[in-house]
Write a structure and sequence with these properties.
- The protein is α/β, with parallel strands linked by helices.
- The protein has 2 domains: about 1-170 and about 350-375, 3-Layer(aba) Sandwich (Rossmann fold), CATH 3.40.50.2000; about 170-350, Rossmann fold, CATH 3.40.50.
- The protein contains 15 helices and 12 strands.
- It has helices at about 20-35, 55-75, 95-105, 125-135, 150-155, 170-175, 205-215, 235-240, 255-265, 280-285, 300, 320-330, 330-350, 350-370, 375, and strands spanning about 1-5, 35-40, 80-90, 110-115, 140-145, 160-165, 190-195, 225-230, 250, 270, 290-295, 310-315.
- The protein has a 6-stranded parallel sheet with strand order 2-1-3-4-5-6, sandwiched between helices.
- Strand 10 (about 270), helix 10 and strand 11 (about 290-295) form a beta-alpha-beta unit.
- Helix 1 (about 20-35) packs across helix 14 (about 350-370), helix 2 packs parallel to helix 3 and helix 7 (about 205-215) packs parallel to helix 8.
- The protein is globular, with a radius of gyration of 22 Å.
- The N and C termini lie close together (about 5 Å).
- The relative contact order is 0.12.
- Mean pLDDT is about 95; it is low at about 375-379.
């Protein structure tokens, strides 16, 4: 099928790395594996961080102009078989896709759509309204984060489909630099821990502080921590870990192959994941055969097989997190068993070929229901 793709929060070609950009790129990879002809319809970023009504109005107007241009172009040629938007929420609504889909009478699908009811009358009320309209009018919504499902279902008609797709990564691309075995070369620092996250205010900084507090409670354990990441809150992060001394090292932002190697050379990935939407870093670590300790939230629990591939603890409970670190640090047999299970878990459930098959099934069902494939001359 010919698919028009749009990511209003962050284009797959955006220069700044993030989990959102990574998922957008993984979706394109999955669509390519399913042998669909996918083109990015627009790079417009509809994101408004401040709740500025004037900016939101300008973005809507710009989206309307882009939509009109796309409709004119495709009416003069063969239109796409389907429009697919990745990640819509009140701060980054889809200001293009619904208009194009209605005008051309093609199916509209949103992968990862979030509704925040308290924003209905807030600073992003117009974005909230656009998101609700897009969700209600979509041929299906594909939820990647289980936390989104209840509100999405409430917004749609009872008979309207809502699909669930497990979070995924391109395992082969991420682990391509790894050898067959772990490369541990232990010294007197004991168990090697790793954390990988951007350093910015809000939930990320809160997670770093929670991790520092947990490690302070696990001072009796022989551990060292490598932190991968950078960002505007780096000084605050370094301050949080300052009391832990040279047991903590900062290596800055690293490319994916280097991260994979560092993960493979670690015993545990540790991350409280406060307000984490989708815990892709846990998928990456498990793909490298590394057990994980993460904060228990729907998005994180969706990618960890608790007590088999890792441990889930309350995200803002440093004592519980410290207890989990102590437990796994003192049990190398358990770590090895969890690491082996983790790698198999990701291959079987969270790898891009698995997602490609699931997504292809969903999209073909949608197009068939909207307009029979035979009538469209596609297959």
């Amino acid at each position: 099928m010919r698919i028009a793709f749009y990511a209003p929060l962050k284009s797959p070609n955006h220069p700044v790395p993030s989990g959102d950009r990574q998922i957008a790129r993984s979706l394109l990879r999955a669509l390519a594996l399913a042998r669909h002809d996918t083109a990015i319809a627009s790079h417009l970023r509809s994101f408004d961080a401040q709740g500025n009504a004037e900016r939101q109005a300008r973005l809507r107007q710009l989206g309307e102009r882009i939509a009109a241009r796309l409709v004119r172009r495709w009416r003069g040629a063969k239109p796409p078989d389907l429009w697919l938007t990745y990640h819509v929420y009140h701060k980054a609504p889809d200001v293009i896709g619904p208009r194009v889909s209605r005008a051309l009478d093609i199916p509209y699908v949103a992968v990862e759509a979030s509704i925040t009811p308290k924003q209905r009358d807030g600073a992003w009320s117009s974005g909230h309204a656009l998101v609700v309209d897009a969700i209600r009018g979509a041929d299906t919504i594909v939820c990647v984060n289980p936390r989104d499902v209840p509100e999405v279902r409430r917004a749609r008609d009872a008979a309207a489909p809502v699909d669930v797709l497990a979070p995924f990564i391109d395992v082969a691309a991420f682990t391509g630099a790894l050898g067959a075995q772990h490369g541990h070369a232990r010294d007197n620092r004991g168990v090697q821990l790793i954390a990988v996250a951007m350093m910015r205010d809000g939930a990320k900084l809160a997670s770093y502080r929670a991790l520092a507090a947990a490690l302070a409670h696990a001072a009796d354990v022989r551990w060292s921590l490598r932190i991968v990441g950078d960002g505007p809150a780096r000084r605050d992060v370094e301050r949080a870990f300052g009391p832990l001394g040279d047991r903590v090292s900062f290596v800055g932002e690293q490319p994916a192959p280097s991260i994979a190697l560092m993960m493979r050379d670690s015993d545990l990935l540790v991350w409280p994941a406060i307000d984490e939407a989708i815990g892709l870093v846990f998928v990456e670590a498990q793909a490298c055969g590394v057990p994980v300790i993460g904060g228990d939230s729907p998005g994180v629990a969706a990618v960890i097989d608790a007590e088999r591939t890792g441990v889930l603890v309350p995200p803002e409970d440093p004592l519980a997190f410290a207890a989990a670190i102590r437990r796994l640090a003192n049990d190398p047999t358990l770590r090895e068993r969890m690491g082996d299970a983790a790698a198999a878990h990701v291959r079987n459930r969270h790898d891009v070929p698995v997602a490609a098959t699931a997504l292809d099934t969903i999209l073909r069902r949608v197009v068939q229901a909207h307009r029979p494939l035979e009538a469209m001359g596609t297959g």
